[in-house]
Amino acid sequence: MNSSLLVIINPASARSRRAWPEIKSKLIENGISFDAHETTHAGEATEKSRAALRDGYETIAVVGGDGTLSEVASGFFEFQTNEVSDAFHPPSPINSRAKLAVLPAGTGDDFARGMAGRRQPLEKWLKILINHYRERSSESARLIDVIQGRASNGERDFICLNVATIGLGAEVARRVASQSGTTKRLPGEARFVSAAFGALVAWRERRARITVDDNQALEISTNLLAIANSTHAGGGMLFAPAAQVDDGLIDLMLTHDLTRSVILRELPRIRRGEHLKNPRVRIIRAKHVRIENIEPNNALLVEADGNVRGHTPAEFRIMPKAMRVIM
Question: Which fold has domain 149-320?
């Protein structure tokens, strides 16, 4: 290893293939030594970042979208190897001083949007990374919370950096990931809107049991839940307007007894955070949330950071100040 910086590029992300040559040129121009790796399949970013941190790399920069960021973040941790255990053990950091650098080049780039307060151009994030290496200051790295998640018939345990959605949001993420042709060339927000209208055609609420911090249980009819560490998801949807990445809490956005027509009306309001005025929408803050489908054949799809992870039952637990992000 000749560098402390590894850049992971997902060439399948919306803008990575075009962005990487300029990023590479700027890093070389500023005398920053780095190694680079382009991913070829799902999950490879996790494997590569985990191996790199074991080998002594101090910073992993990600050229890609929220899904690639999430995969890399999972690689910062070692999970329990006992796959048959039902216990929800927190993973161990490989290097607690390691840092994640964001170079947003995806469809929604919602994590970067939430961290900055608004959508900033890639050039701004690249400048932040370059300044970090010029100044070598620990103050340019922010400690943030992450969410440990688990879903059935999917990845056993995973890290969620930004927001996980259950039901409609997960179906939208699945549809965005499968888009092709002309639709895939649309701007990020337009791709999410197109997928949302398609998902609404199949709208159907299911009975679910939600347990909060092991002591508050709710039974509701729902098809739209969000487990938020930050504010935005779904290409700029403001699911949890007051969420903070370092408050040690999950913001659970809970909806119940909504119709397709109400959801159609609420979609534009979610972009402004005005959906919380609806009495059938609320935020609950918690450290641990479990969601179960009550009827066996009515599981809800689960996604985290744009990656479909499985279906309910699903479980989420906050890991306070578990990761450093260069800001």
Answer: Tumour Suppressor Smad4 (2.60.200)
